[in-house]
Amino acid sequence: MAGDEKNETEDLLSRRMSSGSHSAAETPSKASPEAANDPSTDTEAFDPIKDPILKEEPRPSTGPVRVTPAHSSAPQDTARTREVPAKSTDTSATTPHSSVMSEADWAAVTKAATSRDTHEPEFPERRKNPLDIIGTIWIALSVPFMLLALAVRAIASGMFLKFEYFRPGFPADQFGFGQADREHYATYVIDYLHNLDGRRYLADVILPNGEPVFISDELNHMADVKGLISLLYLIAIIGFIGTVLFSLYLSRKGGLGMRFGFRLGSIFSIIAMAGIAVVALLGWDSFFRGFHRIFFANGTWEFYADDSLIRLFPPQFWVDAGIGAGAIFLLLAIILFLFSFAGHKKRKAARKAQREAADAI
């Protein structure tokens, strides 16, 4: 009897245990999918042998890593999926070691990867505006007038008079003026062209016998010459003031730079003077008369051989003056052209250094 009761007890215990194990096995299949995914409804006990501590899997060495929001039971949103560049040996653009990236982190990683891949250095952009263009044009147009004013002033000087009158081969006056007399009376003409006095300044110049050196027609012509030269000087001064102001503006950080205006102006000057020189060499008399017809009224610039202006300034003087003015003009234009390239090697080296620094990032 005791043996039978023992056997029944063990048999009942065995059936209960078997029934419990079947219920536990059937519970996940009968439960809803939400309950199955919910960690709070998990009835299985934690087994350290079956469920070891999860470790983060190493990232693949190549290829993009797809990053999605963590702890999300919803399907992956393709619009929020981002391709993160694979981790490279370059430590300057290392991908953050996290499964969740903020928008700021993503923007930083994208910018670093793009800069590294394209190898394009970031140079400061030149801020061009209409005032830069106007300044460059102003400088280019002002340069010829400034150079011409300097050349004219160098020729219309006492130094050039002395050089002409005392150089070998200069024609002598056939009516009695010596070299000293020429220099004395011609100096009054040069002074008149650059002072603020009227025609009375030359009218008061007299010969030793008391006669005036210049007649009325000569005074009128010299007044016209003074007006033309004064206009040239005025244009050159205004151009110079504007050139200084625009040069300071163009030389600002990020500005277009003043060298382009000076380079264009010098090129225009060289071309213009070369054209004038060709015309003058082909026919000096035609060129000289054409010049006077353009700037002076007919009949106001022609004189007799015994008039003082012809005796002081014979045709050879104007030939030498044209050659001297043209040479000075071209010399200044060439110097200015070369000056426009000043600092070119330094700027080129600086740009090269910036590119190398950008490539090293």
Total count of strands: 2
State the order of secondary-structure elements, H for helix, E for strand.
HHEEHHHHHHHHHHH
What does the largest sheet look like? 2 strands, antiparallel
Count of DSSP H/I helices:
13
**What is the structural class?**
mainly alpha
Shape: elongated
Radius of gyration: 48 Å
> How far do the termini sit from each other?
91 Å
- Share of residues in helices: 55-70%
Low-confidence stretches: 21-57, 61-99, 115-125
Let me know the average pLDDT.
Answer: 76
Q: How much of the residues is beta strand, in percent?
A: under 5%
The largest beta-sheet arranges its strands as 1-2
Layout of helices and strands:
Blueprint: H1 2-30, H2 33-37, E1 65-67, E2 82-84, H3 103-118, H4 130-155, H5 158-166, H6 179-194, H7 200-203, H8 216-250, H9 259-282, H10 284-295, H11 308-312, H12 315-339, H13 344-360
Antiparallel strand pairs: 1-2
Short note summarizing the structure:
This protein has 361 residues and is mostly helical. It is 62% helix and 2% strand. It has helices at 2-30, 33-37, 103-118, 130-155, 158-166, 179-194, 200-203, 216-250, 259-282, 284-295, 308-312, 315-339, 344-360; strands at residues 65-67, 82-84.
Would you mind describing this structure in some detail?
With 361 residues, the protein is an all-alpha fold. It has a domain at 130-360. It has 13 helices and two strands; from the N terminus they run ααββααααααααααα. It has helices at 2-30, 33-37, 103-118, 130-155, 158-166, 179-194, 200-203, 216-250, 259-282, 284-295, 308-312, 315-339, 344-360; strands at 65-67, 82-84. A two-stranded antiparallel sheet has the order 1-2. Helix 6 crosses helix 8. The longest helix is centred in the middle third of the chain and has 35 residues, at 216-250. The chain starts with a helix and ends with a helix. The relative contact order is 0.10.
